[in-house]
Every structure is written in C-alpha cells, then in structure tokens.
Structure of NADPH-dependent oxidoreductase:
Amino acid sequence: MSEHVYNLLKKHHSVRKFKKEPISESHIKQLIEAGQSASTSSYLQAYSIIGINDPEVKEDLKEVSGQPYVVENGYLFVFVMDYYRHSIVNQESKHDMETSFESAEGLLVGTIDATLVAQNIAATAEDMGYGIVYLGSLRNDVERVREVLNLPEHTFPLFGMALGIPEDDEDGSPKPRLPFEHVFHQNQYDNDIESQRAQLKAYDQTVSDYYSARTNGERSETWSNQIANFMSSKQRLDMLEQLNKSGFIRK
C-alpha cells in the first residue's frame, strides 16, 4: 500500500514566500478539476472559485488582507459560497428554493462544499511542488471584497489561497498538532475535564518547545496562550450583517 498521500499531507505547512513565477494555465485547470472532484452535499456544488492574476485586483485584495503574499505569489484563488446559480434555477422552478439556500443549513452546506474543494486543490498543488497559504484575512472587509470581485447576491467570499513555487530560503515546517487522543474520540466524546487538561498541558509544552527551537528562544508561548489572545480580541463582528446583505441567514 502506497503512503504517498499520507506523507505528502504530513509535510504540509503554510508557505508565505513565493518566487515571482506564474503558474501555468494547464496547472490551474488541473487544480480546479481536482477541486471539483471533491464530495459535494446532495450534488449542490454550492461554490465558485475565482482565479486572480491581475496585479491591480491583487493589490485591492491586499488592502483588505494586509498581507504581502496576497500580491507576491504565483497565483491567487478566492473560494466563494455560491447559490447564485441556484437562485437562477429557482426563477424557473415551481418550487420555493430560497427557504433552503438562505437558511443556516444552506450556509453550512455551501461553506463545507467550498472547503472540501479548497483542500483538494491544496493537496494537489503541494503534490505538484507548489506551496500554499490560506487567507481568512479576506473577510476583514467582506463588502469591499464583494465589490472588487463583482459578486452577486447569494454569494459570499469565504477565504483565499495564495500559491506558487516556494522561495529557496523558505524554511517553514509543520507545526505540531493537538495530540491524536485529544481530537479522536471513539463512539462517544470523551469530556473528562482532567484528562483534557492533562493533554492540553502536555501539548502546550510541545508547542512552546517548537517555537523556542524555531526562534532560538525568542518566542516560546504556548498554544493556550496563543488562542486565548486571539479569541479574546474582537473578530469581524459584522459577519452576520454581511451574510444578511449577501442573501443568507434570512430564514
């Protein structure tokens, strides 16, 4: 049994430094086709992918993201939850479909569909020798992204992905993930708090050691410290408003 895919996925890390070499159109097509082969709930295919190689559009999106690799990459994708095509079908249908695609369940289905597609593309890109980094930062200003990309009602920009050939001095490495026992629960969720605390304590030490080794001791925070700082800050509190404006969560 080949372990090629397993070994490929285990090597994944975010790449944020790319060579200034565009990705060929043939590779872009292959990546999209690989993405489309992902599972899709009830065959809805509730997503679209916007490929961006126009420097001006990249600059506009960089203003939203604040990250230089939104511009400095081989190619840029934006993954969109998309029920626009379903709304077109609805106009010709005798059924009321809006109740479905404007609902919370519709939001979950579209988000999951787009995410499965993106992960297929990420794995395929890395198999081709490219590096990738996801860009949730495009949600910093959803209204601006919708304007830049000319997105119609019943679509929503979920996240981006920059990809390209990693720079020669790109030296990223996989960050340690939560322990297997902490994320895998057999038959029922193990909510024993003392066990959970012990696992988190051990993991915090692993993460602290990782950062310390990567930075020669200049950085040593734990995972718990890192997520506490992140999740205690106000994060995009306009998201429900932006979803409403885009035609979602109206039911």
